[in-house]
Design a protein that fits this description.
Helix content: 55-70%
Shape: rod-shaped
Number of strands: 2
Order of helices and strands: HHHHHHHHHHHHHEE
Radius of gyration: 33 Å
Structural class: mainly alpha
Low-confidence stretches: none
Strand content: under 5%
Length: about 250
């Protein structure tokens, strides 16, 4: 006859596990002998090994008793069901791992690969990280609302970035974010922006338009974070351009 410690050793589990299986009603708990100890026989070892094997295979404790008592057909059906559940859990865990990897991947979190590539290009041409982060946050908002449009937007932005003048403008705009609202250079920047917009094809002002509510949200970020934003927008309006995120010539209506 075996003590609980010997039983646990024979079955390859801990004493704590044996007691847990007693508490769950999976393993019969013998009466104490005259010395006050519980003693286990070979049948208890076999039963405990069967329990351990099922648990290690991923069978929930709530199903172990059922499988221990099942005939061959019922056992096979239950194992098939449990296997199906385990496959689903594995798939979920793989997706969780992918999401965890995204958390460590910076820009990849909540953005499609094309947007991550575009942000990388911004860094390569010398756009400061502060500006890149602002772009990233804006595209996260767009990707959440219009995922089907992201390939078009990224193609358009990459084409723009092929233009050396646009690359220079990005770098200059980073400095603008630190200027005060009274800085006279703001109007020069607005004039330069208007000239760049004027050079774009007319159809661009409809193709890349965002829904008004999303555009208003992105506009608010610009207005709240850039001291000279209002002055830039006023100057652009004087030059015939309205809006910011959905910037367009005043004679173009949605």
């Amino acid at each position: 006859m075996l003590t609980i410690s010997q039983l646990a050793t024979y079955a390859g589990v801990t004493v704590r596990a044996v007691r847990h299986y007693h508490a769950k009603g999976l393993l019969t708990e013998p009466e104490r002998d005259h010395s006050g100890y519980r003693r286990y026989d070979a049948a208890a070892v076999v039963e405990l090994i069967r329990i351990r094997t099922l648990v290690e295979a991923g069978v929930p404790l709530s199903r172990v008793q059922e499988l221990l008592a099942a005939d061959d057909d019922s056992f096979a059906a239950a194992v098939h069901e449990i296997d199906h559940r385990l496959r689903a859990e594995i798939k979920d865990r793989q997706q969780h791992r992918q999401r965890i990897a995204l958390l460590a991947a910076g820009d990849s979190l909540a953005l499609p690969p094309a947007a991550v590539t575009y942000l990388g290009r911004l860094r390569e041409v010398g756009v400061p990280e502060k500006m890149v982060e602002a772009e990233r946050d804006a595209w996260i908002l767009v990707a959440a609302q219009l995922p089907e449009r992201m390939p078009f937007y990224m193609e358009m932005k990459n084409q723009e970035l092929d233009d050396p003048r646009v690359r220079d403008l990005y770098r200059d705009l980073t400095e603008v974010t630190a200027w005060s609202a009274e800085d006279p250079r703001l109007e020069e920047v607005a004039d330069r922006l208007a000239a760049e917009f004027q050079a774009m094809p007319p159809e661009a002002w409809e193709q890349d338009a965002l829904p008004d509510d999303l555009a208003a949200l992105l506009d608010a970020v610009f207005l709240n974070s850039v001291p000279g934003a209002q002055r830039i927008l006023r100057r652009l309006k004087e030059r015939g351009w309205t809006g910011w995120t959905n910037l367009r010539p005043e004679n173009v209506k949605r």
